[in-house]
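Quick question: what would this complex look like in 3D?
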Amino acid sequence: MAIAKNSVGDLYNSITDNNRKYWDDFKATLTESTMKIYQSDILNYMVYIHKDITETIAVEFEKYIEFNLQQGINAKSINRKLSAVKSLIKFLVKQEKMNFNPLASIVKLDDTAEVNKIITLTWEQIQKAKTIPDQFKKNIFNCFYLKGLGHGETAEELGVSLKVLHYHTKGIGEFIGAPELKYQDIIETRNKYFSKCPECGKILETIENNWQFKDSRLLCKEC
Ligand SMILES: [Zn+2]
């Protein structure tokens, strides 16, 4: 499913009657220029959730962020979408159409160029991460680095929310002296330190315990 470049009119016609009413009421409180910035972001989200905005929950917006990232939408644009939808919800809370703002806990993505640059960890940092004392954190590292990440799973495929993913990634980063560590960095790091066995196709870390020479070929120990 791609984000179709629908006109504002098409979007408006695709949302629920209640959403049309909410948007119309909110729109009336905005200046012309703010309304123009907000309209497609808000209407697009309403089309995406396919139900009244008053019923939206945080995990839906997190999935929406993930979806936008997969479409190559940059952090700056995603943050703008988040601001627009949050503003509408604040308005609806004030109007007592909603009891609380379910998106209040969702934080903006870091959109500075420096932070979005992919870094790969050094071998020393990897070794340090393997010694994380707290069993819980260690398991998270095992999950993120040692297990399936070579295939670049999305948070959804891993079965964790973006919030949980970022929380643990940050925890690992802080422990190994890379406080800006992002999930994507772990995937890139894994790609750097893992290899595929040419015989069985298994993907294993490139350490002595996992590999052997057999008939002068480098194969995994199980082949
Ligand atoms: Zn093998």
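Answer marked as accepted. The pocket of zinc ion is lined by residues 197, 199-200, 202, 219-220, 222-223 (CB under 6 Å).
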